[in-house]
Amino acid sequence: MARWLTSDLHFGHWNIMAKYCSVTRPFETLDEMHAQLIARWNEVVLPDDEVIVVGDMIATRQADHHLMVGMLKLLNGHKLLVRGNHDPSDAIFIEAGFEKIEDHIWMPEERILIIHKAPDPLHGASELRIAQALQPDLVIHGHDHRHDTPENPRCLNVCVDRWGLRPVSWAHVEARIAAAGAETGVWAAAS
């Protein structure tokens, strides 16, 4: 069994491909985007693997409940959701077989915090307060769709738009922890 992480698939969100992420999602229709997201997920994730979705799996208020449940059931793996700012009610995820739904995940032995937004005084103040309290060595997050920007060495952005629309393997997490070793220390207070 392997472990994978991903975020910000935005099933049902027309503007994610038409306006916000047209470079990484050059699709003509939502059906094409959905098919590619499912295919690329299932290329790497096996049925017995674990996938932690770090928010924004679905990003539409007009989502057809049964359509969304059906698409989510096509995705391989045992799925856990860390809620994002766009995710609808838990009902869709429960019906689709997600095994756990949380606001964040704290892994104390590894000193890893998994949360939708990066700890940031401007755009992730509540997340920054959690990071200040827990003092993680690594924060795994999503939310930021920019595919060409540098990252904080103590953070790993698993947004699909940064990873070829595919989940990220746990091996990348282990590599980031090794690289971040020199960067550990106290998370700065929000200003």
Describe the structure.
The strands form two sheets. Strands 4-3-2-1-9 form a five-stranded mixed sheet. A four-stranded mixed sheet has the order 5-6-7-8. It is globular, with a radius of gyration of 16 Å. The chain is built from six helices and nine strands. With 191 residues, it is of the alpha/beta class. It has helices at residues 14-20, 30-44, 65-73, 90-95, 125-134, 170-180, and strands at 3-6, 50-53, 78-82, 100-102, 104-107, 112-115, 138-141, 155-157, 168-169.
Short description:
It contains 6 helices and 9 strands.
| Approximate shape | globular
Low-confidence stretches: none
Taking all Cα atoms into account, the compactness measure Rg is 16 Å
What's the tally of helices? Answer: 6
Structural class from helices and strands?
alpha/beta
Count the strands?
A: 9
Q: Helix fraction?
A: 25-40%
Mean of the pLDDT scores?
87
How does the major sheet shape up? 5 strands, mixed
Q: What is the H-and-E element order?
A: EHHEHEHEEEHEEEH
Strand neighbour order, sheet with most strands? 4-3-2-1-9
Beta-strand residue percentage: 15-25%
Give the end-to-end Cα distance, rounded to a whole number of Å: 42 Å
